Amino acid sequence: MEIFFFSLVSHLFLFVLYWVFPVESVFLPNLPALETNPSFHVFDQIVSSVCTKSTRKGHLANGSNNIILNPTFEDELSNWSGKGCNILLHESMEDGKILPLYGKFFASATNRTRSWNGIEQEITGRVRPKLAYEITAIVRIYGGNVADANIQATLWVQSQDINEQYIKIAISQATDKGWVQLQGKFLLNGSPLKVIIFLEGPPPGTDILINRLVVKHAEKAPPPLRPFMKNEAFGVNIIENSNLDDGINGWFPLGNCSLNMEFGSPIELPPMARNSLGMQERLSGRYILVTNRADTWMGPAQMISGKLKLYLTYQVSAWVKIGPGSTSPQIVNVALSIDGNWVNGGQVEFNNESWHEVGGSFRIDKQPSNVMVYIQGPAAGVDLMVAGLYIFPVDRRARFKLLKKQTDKIRKRDLILKFSSSKANNVSGAFVKVEQIQNSFPFGSCITRSSIDNEDLVRFLVKNFNWVVFGNELKWSWTEPQQGNFNYKDADELLDFSKNNNLEVRGHCIFWEVEYAIQTWVQGLNKSDLTTAVQNRLTDLVTRYKGKFRHYDVDNEMLHGSFYKDRLGKDIQATMFRTSHQLDPSATLFVNDYHIEDGSDVRSSPEKYIRQILDLQRQGAPVGGIGLQGHIDSPVGPIVSSALDKLGTLGLPIWFTELDVSSANEFIRADDLEVMLREAFAHPAVEGIILWGFWELYMSRENAHLVNAEGKINAAGKRYLALKKEWLSRARGYIDVQGEFRFRGFYGTYNIEINSPTMKINRTFVVDKGESPLAINIDL
Ligand SMILES: *[C@@H]1O[C@H](CO)[C@@H](O)[C@H](O)[C@H]1NC(C)=O
Ligand SMILES: *[C@@H]1O[C@H](CO)[C@@H](O)[C@H](O)[C@H]1NC(C)=O
Ligand SMILES: *[C@@H]1O[C@H](CO)[C@@H](O)[C@H](O)[C@H]1NC(C)=O
Ligand SMILES: *[C@@H]1O[C@H](CO)[C@@H](O)[C@H](O)[C@H]1NC(C)=O
Ligand SMILES: *[C@@H]1O[C@H](CO)[C@@H](O)[C@H](O)[C@H]1NC(C)=O
């Protein structure tokens, strides 16, 4: 998904580091503008650390667990040294304008001539592998005519095989105005020979000031509470007078537009809401006509403060329409202003005068004091019509029964085990135990070069997944960070690892269409050089790995970026597909994009995705699969399945390629994950599900892990394992007089055991995908 990354400091080493700049979601700080270009950043980028934004208030760390020696410089500069620069001790600077925040002293890293110069301390032996550590530093910058600069904490790790690694563990914007707190978490694998922690980052000439550094074993999170959710008013609309039975009471115009009631809107609920609420609900046919709209954000609004409950997932639904006179497509967005933050309740884009469904979902995990819902979006002067706005909490589990039925229909097969015996034994009446040992459906995870150094993570991976995808190691920015400077080592090692562990591999990705994901040297090429570089990238990568990757994401996120298209013309995307296919006809070529399945992003609606795929096919691109990244929040089954149904009409396999769900409450996270997994597994068009990691600190999204950094499986992890178990069939019984044993089971590998006084067998057999009953002969 979206990430910012920029190449850091060029260390003297072969290694080029990238840093993720997490922006969880973008809220409009002030009412009530429309976020017309909504960019929800979730990240494709994986590093072995997570860092949080700086705060100016540090809370005092428990010094006794601190593995840093002389952390507040009470002992002057002992244990510290300069990395390529000088360090100095201070009680104050600038005639007392700069004073320590804690204790009596601070230090500066000065005479810095490279951005990687800074202050360092060796922590070998004091930092232990596989334990999660948190770091907090109190820092600021000084001098060099720089007001703000990023300071980064980095570990330099030398391992047994003399590999050097740089692990970024925290980054924060520091200023010359005051101290800020730098915070992050990390985990070390293996048994490093030497570990040094250092601060770096600001441009040469700017000093790094440090007042205190604490690195200690991360505190265990308090046991999460399962939110109480009994007797909730699921399905009950919280909007007052949705159907205008009472004129436009309860509604007010946001801005100086005018609201009037009219008649003639649909009386059916929009499909996604109908799926949640049932057919019997009817609308009145009355709608709100909004005229005199002087700005995009103007529309009907209603206060719903006090009506939202924590942790419930709310589905949003309405019919919307625009008045005549607009020539370009218009966006309509159901927006919530939750204590001044913009929350997206769904958006839709269209350019004709039909009624359109708008739908989405949201959830709150902090009790707000002020909540307003409003409908906005079309250009000033364009009339807006809104009918049947419903916001209701969804009982997401209520749908599972239906999904189980669908799953049973599409993921299982009737089986007839036919026993025969050359020894003329009478086989009937023997007791049979059939146990599925593996479901052949692809369940995968993202891995990274550093994550596979963690043996515990690998054990969980190999036991519970059969596919993988590499986080960054195949991306062009990774394999050729500077022009002509190739690094295929990490991808090679990950491929070997996958092969050795019988894991199938998706190739992610050959190109990535979004500008910020493109390395500097590529951005600097002129048209003819870029054409050559693109051709070389295709030839180098796809030839090198011919037959190795089962899938390729050919050009990631074409609905969200147009770097290559803008520079090389529309046909370049189809060319990438065509050339990839010529170079490796065995790989299935995917499109891959995000926010397709949640109604939240008009740039990537299912309709737009379909149009893009058809366009590519028309240009001869052999598109073989549809990738839905699946970085999703507060999923609602009928919304997800609506997108799958639409995309399913293309007849191409759909894969969830980067699925992750994020909630600080792990029970809610478990529910979100279950919604997504069940929807995907129950849908006939879906042929694989890849998670974007599962281990804390090896994921790009926070609060998305299934296993914590130190190996504890949380509620979301347990839910995943329970589903995997549910999707294994078992059967017990006696062989009938025909010498047969029948049951219905999931596709995959089975073990059959007969353990009677006259017969002992233990065999495996495989059930391939197919609709007709499958007879399997078992000769005893
Ligand atoms: C309505 O508000 C817009 C700005 O929000 C302003 O330009 C316009 O003059 C206002 N119209 C009336 C009739 O108040
Ligand atoms: C309006 O556009 C939608 C797709 O956005 C389409 O399904 C519908 O048929 C169109 N209606 C008319 C009257 O053209
Ligand atoms: C096989 O054994 C079962 C009872 O175990 C019996 O009902 C059946 O008639 C036997 N069949 C033959 C062919 O002997
Ligand atoms: C593109 O840049 C290369 C060198 O960077 C130069 O040799 C070439 O002439 C340029 N081509 C065009 C069309 O400007
Ligand atoms: C049957 O074989 C499987 C491995 O194929 C093994 O795990 C299982 O323990 C065996 N069962 C018996 C009763 O030997």
From TrEMBL:
UniProt record similarity statement = Belongs to the glycosyl hydrolase 10 (cellulase F) family.
Protein name per Swiss-Prot or TrEMBL: GH10 domain-containing protein
What is the species listed in this Swiss-Prot or TrEMBL entry? Gossypium gossypioides
Does the keyword Hydrolase feature in the UniProt annotation? yes
**Catalytic residues of the enzyme:** E658
Which GO terms of type biological process are on file? xylan catabolic process
Keyword terms of this UniProt record: Carbohydrate metabolism, Glycosidase, Hydrolase, Polysaccharide degradation, Repeat, Xylan degradation
What PANTHER family does its record include? GH10 DOMAIN-CONTAINING PROTEIN, GLYCOSYL HYDROLASE
The organism's lineage is: Eukaryota, Viridiplantae, Streptophyta, Embryophyta, Tracheophyta
Molecular-function annotations in GO: endo-1,4-beta-xylanase activity
